[in-house]
Amino acid sequence: MAKIDEVAKAAGVSISTVSYALSGKRPVAKDTRERIEKAVRELGYSPNAGARMLAGDRTHIFALTEPLRTDTHAPTHMAFVLATAVAARRQGYDILLLTDEEARAGMSRVASSGLVDAILVLDVAPDDPRVPLARAIATPSVFIGVPDDNDGLVCVDLDFETAAAMAVDALADAGHERIALVGQTDIAYRSSNFPPRVRVAAERRAAERSLSLMFRSSGAVMVDPAATRRGVRELVDAGVTGLILHCAQEAHAAALDELAERGLSVPTDISVVAVGSSFDTAALPTAVDTIPLIPQASCDLAVELAMRSLGADRPEPGLHLIPPTYVGHGSLRRPAGPASS
Amino acid sequence: MAKIDEVAKAAGVSISTVSYALSGKRPVAKDTRERIEKAVRELGYSPNAGARMLAGDRTHIFALTEPLRTDTHAPTHMAFVLATAVAARRQGYDILLLTDEEARAGMSRVASSGLVDAILVLDVAPDDPRVPLARAIATPSVFIGVPDDNDGLVCVDLDFETAAAMAVDALADAGHERIALVGQTDIAYRSSNFPPRVRVAAERRAAERSLSLMFRSSGAVMVDPAATRRGVRELVDAGVTGLILHCAQEAHAAALDELAERGLSVPTDISVVAVGSSFDTAALPTAVDTIPLIPQASCDLAVELAMRSLGADRPEPGLHLIPPTYVGHGSLRRPAGPASS
DNA sequence: TTGAAAGCGGTACCAC
DNA sequence: GTGGTACCGCTTTCAA
């Protein structure tokens, strides 16, 4: 726990020079800076966090609120937390965890105590209680996800609507007429924001392209592989030849296993596109085209916007949607020939 | 962001009285205190975190290091993070996340910057790089889990060894002679601390009771339901009549499903005991006796020890093991009659 | 039972 | 290019 005056003495300079050398907010002669850096290294100096918070205008801490519901899909959630932490550290920021019970009181607390510079909101519900809270406090916040009422909020997310439309288009262009969406768990369509966005967008596009779009979920509250397989079976029996998967990894695996067991091969017998998958799709039993949800991309952008909201060029309130990318892996049937074009 | 002097003015007292009224470190007249509390409420006052850290001797923040490996079982991990956060908040503490890439540098950083009062170490590996680090820094740390080399460290955990022995005893007492352990994933026996502890302790006790103990894992890197079922099938075929489950929820479900499909009923045909399960075993397809691992119990104790290591009655370095409890659900065959007693 | 004031360890302004 | 120093907002000693 060396202090700045010890560093100053060791380097034979004043306290302020040490401060400026470290912050870079004022030019410091090369050799002076090197002497200081050497002293810092030898003393294992790291500026006192409390003093820095008090004297400076930054705490170098972001809060991350996450309402860990029991139906939260843990692996996906963890990927976002990790990506956020990594992105924050790259900017010299630490992450303070605000969990459920404390999520609401916690947000007010860290805001009014000046513990954090900004709040990142994870696992956003369509009707999220943190929305009014975010509006009420002075600390800037960035939502990773899009609540229904997002007026004046800074929200980051994959453009799920476009992603869903792209998936439908891909299947339509390949000549499919009866397609289906294998979605998230039933409860996710109420407690989370993006599942309904995908479903609604897919339905709209299917209607525009005059396709029949069926739907099956992948469980009630938790992912249910057996239920997912049953759903896929029903879809296939109903003559579906194109599948959009928007579910957890386990459900993807279950769906593809079911196809394989029924002797249906991709893409010969059935086309498959995965939308918004945040896991490594290479680990799936069958290679499928994907329009991935990349946690790192969302979290990097969220952190960037959080940083910017501390300075002069505040980001525009509104949706900051990340354009989806279609990654082909040959799971689409060849487009229909001239006859149907 | 009201400040303490505003509260003082509003309550018509001095700054120090406000401070003492809030900290309780000095008696304050009842009506004075009430005036202060009223002012605090009306102004939405919350003491400035930086100032408090700087002036006081506590930061009111604990670091939580977690090396989110790709093979980490996310749901279990999340349960521990959540339990830790809740326990910490009950003591007025917040949790700062230190993830992987930064786990090592991060520990040094938060220690030398005085950002946190103590460090909680999660997801402990047998040969954990954070062990030497914890010894090197001044900030006290508490390990939730037991590394091989734990000399001088404060470690909290369920007494897995005793739990494993209890499970073996339960099966032995019920008259079983060929029993088996369905364990974690293969990789967990290298990257995590408790799976080998359970396995070794079970083997030792089985030997002492002259039982044959077979072993099957529940996957390579990730939980693999199919592999688990295959393993259970092999065990049953080998004449095993008593099963100890020490694996993730999905693997429990797979194992029990396999038994059910083979027409084996619990406990008539086979006895089952779950050891160290940290999820809700009531959600399993079959009721089983359990010797649960309760995240809240471990995390509460860890936080308590962390608090104590800041004050006068520092906890003894060493293992602080939580005694296991056997919770019966009728999944054990009735003890053998007099003939074999 | 209460108040005044000296720090805590940085940051950043003002001088030189 | 460098140094002196007045804060930042709280905690806690000392005094009354």
Automatic annotation (TrEMBL), chains A, B:
Residues 2-56 form the HTH lacI-type domain. Keywords: DNA-binding, Transcription, Transcription regulation. Pfam families: LacI, Peripla_BP_3. The keyword Plastid does not apply. Gene3D superfamilies: 3.40.50.2300, lambda repressor-like DNA-binding domains. This is LacI family transcriptional regulator.
